[in-house]
Fold this protein.
Amino acid sequence: MYYKTKRTITAMSAGFLAIIGYIIYALGESAPAQDDLKGWALAMLIFIGVMVVVSIVIQIIFHIVYAVGIAVKEGGKDNEDIEKMVKTSMVEDERDKLIELKSSHLGFMVVGFGAIVALFTVFIGLPMVIPMHIVLGSFALGSFVEGSVTIVYNEMGVRNG
């Protein structure tokens, strides 16, 4: 498995755990009332901030574990060779840029579709908290789609065109 695939799986796992945490909070008794839009907006902003911090910490831990794993795997080599191996695996080439472009395109399509659905729910008169959750959910789903497509392209290959 490629380094970038492992990194993407790690990032997706962190995002999945954060969304599960938000869902548990939203369905719990400490959640704001349905008509308290400021309360929901604050809760969403707090969870977005927590997700960013958790993602950064998990990525740092991932890179440390990855470097240690290479050092253990290549036990007979000196630190300079191991450092070169780690840096080589993190280099981004044209293939990686193409994969990122294609996967982000699909992720943005999901977010755009979610925004349209949220606008439609406002149009038909549903409570305003529902479009807020749809937008948040579309960002989470878009991120998941982007990560999944990245993994598929990294493992199976990608063609230009």
The chain has a mean pLDDT of 88.
